Amino acid sequence: MRRKLAAGNWKMNGLTASLSEIGTLAGDLPETPCEVLICPPATLIAAMAGAVHGTGIAVGGQDCHAAESGAHTGDISAAMLADAGASHVILGHSERRADHGETDADVAAKTEAAWKAGLTAVVCVGETEAQYRAGETLAVIRSQLAGSLPGGTTAANTVIAYEPVWAIGTGLVPQMDEIASVHGAIRAALSDRFGADMADGTRILYGGSVKPGNAAEIFAVANVDGALVGGASLKAADFGPIVAAASAA
Ligand code: 13P
Q: Nearest to residue 16, comparing CAs of 36, 53, 43?
């Protein structure tokens, strides 16, 4: 059985004062919670790792460099994230692909770097609105998966996040049967390349305008193993009910 994962991506939001949300979230966790991961900005990782100590909540980064160290001003290595207390790192988010021109090959190189540092990679894929309208969603997702996942991908070292770009921060969400179709295609693609056991064990998250009001419906969709949540992960009052929905699903 794949344990559900509720992951929060704080993006470029959060100052030290925001850490109080973690205490509230931890205090409200259900008795048998799903796996919970928060990916704050890098400046907060070490402090958050301290704040979640003993709660079972994991902390992750939002990006890492593909190199282990060196002359890369402003960048952060996977080992630095691990050293600060992170166990996961989001890679290939559409905002990184769009804002920083990250390619599938870049994402694959970063994924290998993450594993080397002992981090679990949360590899993101998703089609743009134009690709969605053109009916290219499945082709785009298959191509991104093929290019972004290194040959050594396992159910233990990687989580996949399907995030339609047009659903991020817009309040728009695909139809549930559309989510089911993409998640099914992702699992089939994993099975074709890595085998049925790997595909069966790998978590596939949905991301894009997940809110307390739609989380339960999304978690009930076949092959949805959790969510990658942006805006609604910033406040425990919103993320708590999403965690509860994932824990009950
Ligand atoms: P929203 O939940 O704000 O739409 O963001 C989704 C996302 O990009 C998470 O990585």
A: 43
Contacts of residue 196, Cβ cutoff 8 Å, sequence gap at least 6: none
Superfamily the domain 5-248 falls into: Aldolase class I (3.20.20.70)
Average pLDDT per 10 consecutive residues for the chain, totaling 249 residues:
95 97 95 96 98 96 98 98 98 98 98 98 98 98 98 98 98 98 98 98 98 98 98 98 97
The pTM for the full model equals 0.98
- 36 with 243: CB under 8 angstroms? yes
What pLDDT score does 1 carry?
Answer: 77
Return the closest-CA partner of residue 40 out of 63, 23, 56: 63
Nearest to 92, CA basis, from 107, 114, 75: 107
Pocket flag, ligand 1, residue 229 (CB < 6 Å) = yes
Pocket perturbation via mutation, ligand 1, pick of 229, 233, 238, 239 by most ligand atoms within 8 A of CB:
229
Task: Please report, for the chain, the start and end positions of each structural domain, with discontinuous segments joined by +.
Answer: 5-248
In the DSSP assignment, the letter for residue 243 is H
- Give the pLDDT confidence score for residue 139 in this predicted structure: 98
Ligand 1 atom nearest the C-alpha of 228 is 9
